[in-house]
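During the reporting period the student researcher (J.K.) took over the structure-prediction task from the postdoctoral fellow and processed the backlog of single-chain submissions. One of the processed entries is reproduced below for the supervisory committee.
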Amino acid sequence: MGSGATTLDTADGPAFAVALSEGALHLTGDFRMDEAPAIWRELHRSTEGARGGSLTVDLSGTHAIDGAVMALIVALRTELAARGVRTDIQGTPSHLRSLVELYGVEAPPEKRKKREPESAIAQVGRATVRMGEGLEGVIAFLGELVVSGLALARSPRKGHLKEVPPLVERAGADAVPIVVVINFLVGFVMAYQASSQASGELAVFGAALYIADLVGLTVTRELAPLMTAIIVCGRSGAAFAAEIGSMKISGELDALRTFGLRPFAWLVVPRVLALVLIVPALTLVADVVGVLGGLCAGVASLGLSVKGYFIETREAVGLWDVGQGVIKSVVFAIAIALIACQQGFSVSGGAEGVGKRTTSTVVMSLFALVVLDAIFTIILQEFGR
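J.K. obtained the following C-alpha cells:
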C-alpha cells in the first residue's frame, strides 16, 4: 500500500482529511453528507492499490460523521474485503460509537473496570436508603391523595367515580371464595391444634369450651383482617400496579393529561375508595367463616355442642373486638392501594419494569401490613383495648 494525504478545503477551512500511512487510514475532521461524493473519491483513491493484508480505519480524529458517510465506509470495507483486505475500525469517539454500531461495524470494546466486591455494610446502607426513598414516595403519594380527595369533594365530576363499582366487584365479589376458604381453614387449624391440649390436661378442668374464646378473639382481632388484607394485596394490589404501569408505558397517562384530566384523581382515588369499601366487608365475612372453622374442629375433635360453642363465642367476643379488626382493615386497604398505585406510577423500562414494580408492590405491601398490625397491637395494648 502506498501512503499519502488528501484534504478537502471549504470557505471556512479544512472540512475533512483522509490520510493513508503505515497500514492505517486516518480520517480527520467533519464528514458530512454534502461532501459525500468527494469523500467517496478520496476514500477510493487512498485505497485503490490495496491488495491483501489488513487495513485499519482510524476514526479518532473525526468530529462528526453522517449516516450517509458511514454507509460509504461500510461499502469501502465490502470492496476491500473482495480484494482480500481485512478492515478494522479503531479509535471511535464515544459520541460516534452508537452510529458505528448501528451500521454493523464493531467498535473496539471498552476496557471494563474490575468490579470490586461490595461490603455487607455498604449493601445494608444502600438497601436502607432505597427503603427510605420508597417510604418518602408513599408519604408524598398520601399527601397527593388527600389533596385530590378534597378537590373531588368540591367537584365530583372531575373524578372517575363511576369506576368504583366495577373495581369493588373485581376486588370484592371475585375475592369472596378464596377469602372464605382461607379463613375457614385458619379457624379450623387453630382450633384443631388447640384441641390436642384441651382434650388432655385442660379437659379435667372443663376448659375445652374455651377453644371458642381462643378462636373468636384471635380471628376477629388479628387473623381475619390480616389474612384478608394479604389476599387483597396479592390479587388487587398487584393488579392495580400492573394496570397503571402498563398505562404509563403505553402513554395513556400522558393522554389523560392532554385531555386536562389529573391521572391521580382519575386512577388512584377510585381504587382507594374501592378497597376502603370492600376490605372491611370481606373482613366481616372472614370473621364469620373463621368462627365456623373453629366450630367444625371443636365439634369434631372435642365433642362440643354447636349451641354451647356459639354461646361461649358470643360471651367472649364483643363489638369492640370486631370493630378493631374492621378499623385495621380500613388502614390496610389504604396502605395496599397507595403502595400499588405508587409503584404503578413509578414503572419505567417496558414490560420488565412492570414486572419488577408488580413484585415490589406485593413485597412492600406485605411488609407494611405486618408493621401496621404491630403498631396497632402496641397502641391498643397501651390503651388497654
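The committee noted the following: Residues 136-382 form one domain.
J.K. will present the remaining backlog at the next meeting.
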